[in-house]
Amino acid sequence: MDDLLQEFIAETRETLEAISGEIVGWEADPGDRSRLDAIFRFVHTIKGSCGFLDLPRLARLSHAAEDALAAVRAGERAPDQSLVTVILAIIDRIGEIVEAIDAGEALSEAGEAMLIAALDGAIAGEAVPAVDTVDAPAAAPAVRHAPKRSVRLSVDLLDRMMSGVSDMVLARNQLARHLRMIDDPRLESMLERLSISVDELRDTVTRTRMQRVESLFSALPRLARDSAAALDKSVTLTIEGGDVELDREMIELLRDPLVHLVRNAVDHGIEDRVGRLRAGKAAAGQLRIVARQAGNLIIIEIADDGRGIDSERLLAKALRAQPERAAELAALDEDGRLKLIFEAGLSSRDEVTALSGRGVGMDVVKANVEQAGGRISLTSRPGQGLTIALEVPLTLAILNAVLVEAAGTRFAIPRQSVDEIVAVDGGAVRVDRVAAGAVVLLRGQRLPMVSLPTLLGQSEGNAIPGFLAIVSLREGRFALALDGVNDTQELVVKPAAPAVMRAGIYAGQMLPDDGAPILLLDCAAIAARAALAFERPDAAVTEAEVVEPVRALLFDDIDGVRRMIVSDAVDRIEGVTAGSVRALAGGLWLTIGARSIPVWAGTGAVAGEVRKVLRLQLDDQELAYPIADPIEIVPLPQEIAPAADPRGVIAGLAVIDGEPIELVDPLALFDDATAIAARPVCLLHGAESGWMEAFLKPAIEQAGYRVVRRAPPGLPVALALAMEDDADTPPVPALRLSRERGKPLYRFDRAALIAALKDYAA
Predict the structure, then answer these.
(1) Whole-number Å distance between alpha carbons of 427 and 449
(2) 518-521 and 484-494 strand pairing
(3) Cα(563)–Cα(650) distance, rounded to whole angstroms?
(4) Same domain, 435 and 498
(5) How many CB atoms lie within 10 A of CB 746?
(6) Residue ending a domain, choose from 181, 196, 212
(7) Per residue in 498-522, is it b (16+ CB within 10 Å) or e — as a string?
(8) Which of 37, 234, 357, 638 could be joined to 349 by an S-S link, Cβ 3.0–4.6 Å?
């Protein structure tokens, strides 16, 4: 209601400004019919709006003015000077009341009754009373609120703003890609500031286009009531999720389809009272509309408890209309029969009513939804009801996407849908062919696999994929086979062409930093197209089911010795760029993005010479093991000879192709690296913690600390970092940063900060 009231106030102000000239012109020429009509429309609009918003004072004034102006328009009353004076006084008073409502001020009603009486001729127009603009003294002073300022913009202007922000995001991504080749901390700092500003601007502009879907639902209760009354039915409408936000343009595109679906539910789906009672149902039908957000999609469900769709009847009507399709129609499954409802000229009703039965509508609904980049699905329960789900994208949303390759073409996958990406040749996964499909075994869990190149019809089903994206959906997880993985970017989502969306596996299109458009994959639609049957997420493969021996990765170590390690312990094999491994804080550290990972240095690794590492993971710990080259994955022999390794890192010796090979114990690696991995924790404290994380985190990590903004219970914090003017006292000893250059610990003095942190640790 607050949003509606603010919209009413803004509209009233705009209209008052727009008709101010009309009012002056009408006062000079009361016989001007066009100006009279403009003023009449204004008071008529005010009367209708304030009745809904429960503003009785405005309703009384506008109603009286409307009656008087209606009499003038009908020729029943002459627009003399006294009438014009009273009308102008009422319009002025309406403006004063609106401003008082916006400011939260109380305003006296004195004189308003006399204004209304003057319209009826009880008081001479020349004697129109002056209306007080300040309330009489009250027992408690009214609380004054600053009025909210607003401005109305055209949707075209918002589109241009969003397009400009999209170009800024693209330019930022292009700049970031080129700056990766330049090792300049100053440029990185400036890029970080630019990224923060662009992200804030993007979020602000995106919010200006968003609108609650309650504006889409507001007309539906009256629509359902009138439709039910025309058919002598009783329908109870329930609406949920009105606070979900959707792009304004999308709301307009969905308005007509939603109206049609509600009418269909009342006319086609819900039975009349007699029919419902015979079916053992309540006399009043239930119609439920629910809106919710799922990732980058908005889902609107229209569900009724009526008769559902009779697919056999639909099939018979389609066969009568097109007998040449008999073979095709006979081969349709239940889902295919239900989709016949979307064919032009086909209706589930035999008779034509005022609301439906002409075979025009559901095909248009489907076309409109697809034009918006969405899709429509049906779930029919004969005798129990029908649920229609509209899935539409947040058309102009900007989201993180993983850029991948399949069959020589690039695609994007929503980042929030991807749990992880693993290399098939890294030994962490096993792909088993089962009948015409494939199953992936990943850390003891069996997942169905879908080959994207095969789904696109560009490769054979038995081709070995290069990478697997582990996709998480509401129903479960599956592995999406890919040829390559390129990058992760923030991209703008826009609708693809209807012909592309009809493919059923895309959610829109995106524009990456190289300017070549790519399609955004809809992971849920891919799973549906592949007809996946998900196991429970916790359904682990039992030991009896795994008959193959344990596998191990054979590799050449950096000291020239060939060794092996259980492949399940290796998350992936990763190439390392020059300078990524550095000697810091008493050990070797690998920097990947914004993270630092301890490096095993027991075999004599030198910081600048490491080029490949095994990424090992144990619970929440991670370790990089430097190697020279990976060789192959081999079965681990059951006979393991014990080894007398003083460090305890070599678990034993196994014979591979007649050669004894050392088996590395991954648990021993983590035990030996615990002292390195357990870095002291630095807490970023106070109102500037976000700025510190953005600008100072790399320097703090270089000093050997782990950085957190909020310490979970039980985590020991060694030191806090705060601004010297922050009044909030940190819970642990703290280093205070100064805002003034020349002070001992100036916040932009990176070298001094690192030295201070290292001194504290020592």
Answers:
(1) 17
(2) unpaired
(3) 9
(4) yes
(5) 15
(6) 212
(7) eeebeeebbbbbbbbbeeeebbbbb
(8) 357
Across residues 663-690, what is the average pLDDT? 76
Residues 6+ positions from 491 with CB-CB distance below 8 Å: 169, 398, 399, 401, 412, 510, 511, 512
| pLDDT at 287 > cutoff 90 | yes
> Under DSSP, is residue 171 helix (H, G, I), strand (E, B) or coil?
helix
Q: How far is residue 299's CA from residue 632's CA, in Å, rounded to a whole number? A: 47
Model pLDDT, residue 188: 78
Beta-carbon contacts of residue 328 (< 8 Å; ≥ 6 apart): none
Grade residue 386 by pLDDT with cuts at 50, 70 and 90: very high
Q: Which of 358, 268, 252, 250 is nearest to 310 (CA)?
A: 268
pLDDT for res 241: 86
Buried b (16+ CB within 10 A) or exposed e, 657-691: eeeebbbbbbebbbebbeebeebbbbbbbbebbee
On whether both 635 and 689 belong to a single domain, the answer is no
DSSP 184-214: -HHHHHHHHHHHHHHHHHHHHHHHHHEEETH
Q: At 453, which amino acid appears?
A: P
Reply yes or no on whether the pLDDT at 671 is more than 80: no
Q: Of the given ranges (128-132, 138-142, 220-224), which has the lowest mean pLDDT?
A: 138-142
Task: Please write down the long-range contacts of 11-14, taking CB distance under 8 Å and 24 or more positions apart.
Answer: 11/45, 11/49, 12/46, 12/94, 12/95, 12/98, 13/95, 13/98, 14/152
Overall pTM surpassing 0.85 (yes/no): no
The pLDDT value given to residue 289: 93
CB atoms within 10 A of CB 497: 12
Give domain status of residue 139, yes or no: no
One-character DSSP codes across 27-50: HH-TT-HHHHHHHHHHHHHHHHHH
- Contact between 549 and 617 under an 8 Å Cβ cutoff? The reply is no
Q: Quick: pLDDT tens for 621-652.
A: 788 899 988 888 888 887 777 776 666 788 88
Q: What is the pLDDT of residue 346?
A: 67
Query: Alpha helices, DSSP H only, in 372-477?
Result: 452-455
Q: Please give the pLDDT value at position 128.
A: 53
Q: What is the CA radius of gyration of the chain?
A: 35
Same domain membership, residue 591 and residue 456: no
d(CA 666, CA 323): 69
- Last residue of a domain, which of 73, 106, 127? 127
Q: What is the DSSP letter of 568?
A: G
| Averaged pLDDT score across all residues of the chain | 78
Q: Which domain holds residue 106?
A: 2-127
